[in-house]
């Protein structure tokens, strides 16, 4: 009997780590290759975005990992309440989150939870994938991965969990993410309750959105009693970050957006104060402004099946932020794991038999992934349209949450 199948996971984000935990629990060999250096404990204690995990997807994956009970104590820094306000910061509706059906966890805490349940020897940090080449052997196809100074290695299954600009995706399709006519700027106010209690009251304990003119001032509560602000700008200029002078500048430069009615000029009152306060607080860090263009793949992007290579998460279906991204990615990992596990058990760990039994299971996985992505893409378009589809969307968005609270009509 030949050696066991060689499995490579490219990318150590939530999707790659989830797949790693699941494989490790079943004693299926694998290696995760991550571009970044291994984060220190101090780095993992820093602020990061909050992720709400959903029962049927992200939490289902965590339960399969056996980590649900460990997950719960790491939640609670952001409630499920959602406040909708107009451009002046006047609150139109507060949606109570109710029971913890979608508990929030910081991205760093999720990374810690998952990575600490994978042997350190299974994760190779500082490994940048330079190129990937598929080649045919007498019995199967394998993929050679070139990690530059770390050398080349061949694998029987390569999983692209390497995000929006995936290199692995290039093995199966030339499709690339497209600019969405949207930019996002991230700012943070730490210790907001003690320093700015009136602003803490405005943004509440969960999420907050002030909408209008196809833009938004959004907030999400997080660690260190923080308010993490996301300024969504609808901008047709893909080079706006550079052409506006915002990229590479201190955060205080954002204040100039309030002098242009086409940008944030019509945002006033507490919404404006919230942003300006965040600019001043962020400037104290000495870091340049966090601004980025948003890209997405066409909904339901598919590819011609290639034996021994597949994608999951943003590599397969990156979309605009919609509260579903990490959940879809973790569920992809769960579904791919089940296919690998089934083939592994059937083949008796023989690499040639694994390859033969796994290929049809891989095609089934990819078909399911694409169908889920199509559905999620449609829902994302509807949500983004409600938030940014007109000049004054706040009242309609508030009504959207009222309808959720009231439930379907009898």
Automatic annotation (TrEMBL):
KW Flavoprotein (keyword) present: yes
GO-annotated molecular function: FAD binding; monooxygenase activity
Gene3D superfamilies: FAD/NAD(P)-binding domain
Pfam families noted in UniProt: FAD_binding_3
Domain FAD-binding: 7-349
Keyword Mitochondrion: no
Family annotation (InterPro entries): FAD-bd (IPR002938), FAD/NAD-bd_sf (IPR036188)
Keywords on record: FAD, Flavoprotein, Monooxygenase, Oxidoreductase
Protein name: FAD-binding domain-containing protein
Upper lineage: Eukaryota, Fungi, Dikarya, Ascomycota, Pezizomycotina
